[in-house]
Design brief:
This protein has 212 residues and is of the alpha+beta class. It contains five helices and nine strands, in the order ββαββαβαββββαα.
Length: 212
């Protein structure tokens, strides 16, 4: 996500993995590109990132461009950095929803909601492996549908539940609600806190009955 100067005159490039992982073939493509540009090693770095040290400045810029084209996070303002999402369906047997698809959809359709002021947690089930602690907003798959939890964990009592195929639309309605209610220079987290659980849950649940 950034280029760092090193003491020997070279540079290190940091990039992040969206939601903490990428398919093996994409990682291989990035590694091959890095090697072709002079990288001799790749180091894991927090949070959910990779560090490529020992590169020339031009090589960093080129590798950053390649990484972005491959789908990695190269911009520190990327809305995907505000989302914790487990593998979900179809990767996890416990998953009830396609967490990564839902997360990517919201990052693309409502980046203004994900301004870095809070974490959106998308969990395939009530275990909440990707984000065990409380989050301002959590979606969790269940046998009854997709649950919305406000200021809780994936296992907390839900504020609303919608059919699985309505979850994305429900999140978009929350984003629309926030756009209408948000005050000047107010963070998304502050706006959500001011709106309160009931209003957020109402917007989310309306997804089951209305099209935006």
């Amino acid at each position: 996500m950034a280029v760092f100067p090193l003491g020997d005159g070279t540079f290190a490039l940091g990039i992040a993995l969206p939601f903490g992982s990428m398919p093996a073939k994409i990682l291989i493509a990035l590694a091959q590109a890095a090697r072709n540009l002079g990288a001799a090693e790749i180091r894991p770095a927090p949070p959910r990132a990779l560090l490529f040290p020992g590169l020339a400045a031009d090589a960093c810029r080129m590798l950053q461009k390649i990484a972005a084209e491959l789908g990695f996070v190269t911009d520190p303002t990327d809305p995907r950095l505000s989302i914790s999402a487990c593998p979900g369906l179809p990767a996890c047997a416990s998953g009830r929803i396609a967490t990564r698809d839902i997360a990517a959809d919201l990052a693309a359709s409502a980046p203004d909601l994900l301004d870095g002021s809070f974490t959106l947690h998308v969990s395939g089930c009530a275990k909440g492996c990707a984000h065990p602690g409380a989050a301002a907003l959590t979606l969790a798959g269940s046998g009854d549908g997709t649950a919305l939890v406000v200021n809780g964990t994936a296992g907390s009592p839900p504020a609303a539940i919608v059919p699985h195929d309505e979850a994305r639309h429900g999140l978009r309605r929350i984003a629309s609600l926030m756009r209408r209610a948000r005050r000047r220079q107010e963070t998304a987290a502050a706006c959500l806190a001011r709106l309160g659980t009931a209003e957020i849950a109402t917007a989310f649940a309306q997804a089951a009955f209305a099209q935006e």
